[in-house]
TrEMBL record:
PANTHER family, A to Z: DIOXYGENASE, PUTATIVE (AFU_ORTHOLOGUE AFUA_2G02910)-RELATED (PTHR33711), INTRADIOL RING-CLEAVAGE DIOXYGENASES DOMAIN-CONTAINING PROTEIN-RELATED (PTHR33711:SF7)
Record domain Intradiol ring-cleavage dioxygenases: where: 127-155
PROSITE patterns in UniProt: INTRADIOL_DIOXYGENAS
SUPFAM superfamilies according to UniProt: Aromatic compound dioxygenase
Protein name: Hydroxyquinol 1,2-dioxygenase
Length: 289
């Protein structure tokens, strides 16, 4: 095609596809071209604006490391990660939520009742629940991968003072689908804002704050894995999470427990907690593949 114009460039682009192009690839690329070309036309994008956009994407690549994935963070703050979660969620199962860029692979396997808190100061949180299917049946042997920030608001991969596996652990639910552990109350924190994502937030007058939460990846043979988060119902950022991760069924109460009522057995901290603490009950519902 020699006479490419602003009116026919999208169709020309699609006409260049090979006859053996995978249908799904063709569908995705066709939609991308329609929306991207339409965006350029609608905004009457200038050369300077396009060059600045390319420089920002270049910066995203340059700042990305094994410990910090700025591409994931960019997807998160633009709402793309959450939108993919939403359109792929099943209403019969627990809502999915963003994975985020700070999950540590190969976290240590931990016994039920293990403790994340270790030497850190703060309120003890006892977390327990069940892994179930959509019919209410317990799923024995499900894997529950948990992680969170330290009290300073940093994940282990962001903080040289923490061991890489700090506040990370993998549990195996028992024959009744039950899991439990103790930790410290998570805190609200800011996503990294010293790079291109921060520039976008500043340009749009947005803050970088996330409500406090626990991250979960729950998986079991024969079921779709669930990536989700659990939020306390009193966090000030619930209604303006900068990565759009909050879902109604993921907001729960931290139930205050009186001093001296911590379980006398079954937990690593049994016999060691004399102060008041809080309790979280969270059941995860998985859908069959």
């Amino acid at each position: 095609m020699r006479s490419v114009t602003a009116e026919n460039i999208t169709e020309t682009f699609l006409g260049y596809f090979g006859k053996d192009t995978d249908p799904r690839v063709k569908e995705i690329m066709a939609s991308l071209a329609h929306h991207l070309h339409g965006f350029v036309k609608d905004t009457k994008l200038t050369h300077d604006e396009w060059r600045e956009s390319l420089e920002l994407l270049k910066w995203v690549g340059e700042i990305t490391t094994p410990e910090r994935n700025e591409f994931v963070l960019l997807s998160d703050v633009l709402g793309v990660s959450s939108l993919v979660d939403m359109i792929n969620s099943n209403p019969a199962a627990t809502s999915s939520s963003v994975l985020g860029p700070f999950h540590v692979s190969d976290a240590p396997e931990m016994a039920l009742g293990a403790d994340f808190k270790r030497h850190y100061d703060g309120e003890v949180i006892l977390v327990e629940g069940y892994i179930k299917d959509t019919e209410g049946n317990f799923i024995p042997g499900a894997t529950v991968d948990i992680w969170q920030t330290a009290p300073n608001g940093l994940y282990s991969s962001q903080d040289e003072e923490q061991d890489i596996n700090s506040f990370h652990g993998v549990f195996t639910a028992d024959e009744n689908g039950y899991y439990c552990f103790t930790t410290i109350r998570p805190v609200s924190y800011t996503v990294p804002s010293d790079g291109p994502v921060g520039k976008i937030l500043d340009a749009t007058g947005r803050h970088p704050w996330r409500p406090s939460h626990l991250h979960y990846i729950v998986s079991a043979e024969g079921y779709r894995s669930l990536v989700t988060e659990v939020f306390p119902n009193d966090d000030p950022y619930l209604d303006q999470d900068t990565v759009f991760g909050v879902r109604e069924d993921l907001v729960i109460g931290y139930k205050p427990q009186a001093a001296g009522t911590f379980p006398k057995e079954g937990f690593e901290l049994s016999g060691k907690v004399d102060d008041a603490f809080s309790k979280i009950d969270f059941d995860a519902i998985l859908i069959k593949k």
